[in-house]
Structures are given as structure tokens and as C-alpha cells.
Design goal:
By secondary structure, the chain is of the alpha+beta class. The chain has eight helices and twelve strands.
Length: 263
Amino acid sequence: MNLDGFLRHIEACRTAALPGRRRAVRFRGAEVGFIAPETLAALGLPDADLDVPDQAAFDRYARVLCTGGVHRFRDEAFDVRDHDGRVAATLDRGALPLFGIQAFGVHVNGLVEGSGGWSLWIGTRNPNKLLDPGKLDHLVAGGVPAGMSYDDTVIKEAAEEAGVPAWLAAQARRVGEIRYDMERPEGLRRDVLICYDLIVPPDFAPHPHDDEVVKFELWPLAQVVEAVRDTDQFKFNVNLVLIDLFLRLGALDSDELRNALTG
């Protein structure tokens, strides 16, 4: 099988060279991110490394950028971690890419096992979404809010997005993580995707429960493989989680793809 259709999705998420033209962002001496010269200019700061002395300063910077129209305030705090993974501060979710802060999100493959093999629940994102409107998505996916564990985020997002009861969402099995550094219109995405598999009963059907997703459809695994290989229908980072799934289920067998995902 020609792998180019899969490899292009991985390459598209690995477009940032760090630090590149960006300056380091430090919180109380610990490096936590990278900031572009134009963002420093929007803050009225010189083109130099940014040392953030305390939480109040981080909050102030986020408000300035929101007021100036540089980012959309999300009113949702995310953890800011140092190189050792320790939480150093929090920052509004909308400002994370502007400071090159690593963000964590959960992605849940909703699997159904049948006599013909595996099928996968596929969501369609709301066309009014700011990020990747109308694209295809997982059964459940969402950012990890400040102070919340990955597993608890899965249970919360599953209920909010797809009406999945907590007892079922709690059966999701963590299967790995995928990291990338990517240039996006909103800034530098330094994402860590925490991947889960959730096998759901054949008689269970998710339903949109908020404005994130407008519908869910159950696709045979082969149809999902073809869509990832041949189209850009899926949200940009969902493709990576699905390629990992294809490899684990044996729908693809390629060391080149495995190495590309972990590279």
C-alpha cells in the first residue's frame, strides 16, 4: 500500500522548528514555552526571552492579547508545565498557542466489534466551530483542563459531547500518546494527545449533547482508513490518532508509519 496519503498527515503536524525565530518563555526561571516577536510586540515588550514572574503577570498578558484581538478568550484555564512535567502555572486555553505552551488533550476511539470486524463511531464537528468547522472527529476529544486528570477528562467530555454515561466512559483504555509541534494560524501548537480506545456495546448509539458535534455515524474500519488516506475530511490531529489505531488493529502494518508517529 502507498503510505504517502497517511504520511502527509503526520508531516503536516510537524511543521515547527524550535525555537526557530521564537524566544523562550520562562515562568519563575523554568522554561515553559516559546513566543513569537509579533506577540511580544502586541504585549509592548522587546524581542527578547520572556520571563514571567508570577501568575498575575500571565493572566495580565492573556487579557491584553484578548483585548487587542490577538486571541479569543476561552475562559478555561489549562495547566502550564515545566520540562519535568510539574505544573508551574495556569493560562487561558485560547492563549496557549501564542506562548507556545504545551497542551494536553484526550482522544477516544469509539469502537464497535461485530462479525464483520471493527467499526468506529465518527462525529461531525459543528460548522460554527472556530477550529476545523465541519470536519470529522472522534467519538470523544477534548483538552485537559487545569487540575483534572486524563481519565476524568474522558468521562467529562464523553458525557458533554456524546451522551456517554460515566460507567461506560470509565471503561476507556489508555493506549498511548502522540506529540507534535505545529505552526497553526492560532500560533504554535505543542500538543500531547492522550489516546484511548473505548469498546462500546453494539446497541449503544452516541448522540450530540452540546454544540461540539452535530451528528455521529458508525463507519466500518476500512471506510475510515480510506478517508484518512485519500481525503482531508478529518480534523488535522485526529488523523494521527487514527493512523495509530490502524497500526494497532492490523489494518496497516508499517514500521515507517510507526517511526513517523513517534519521531
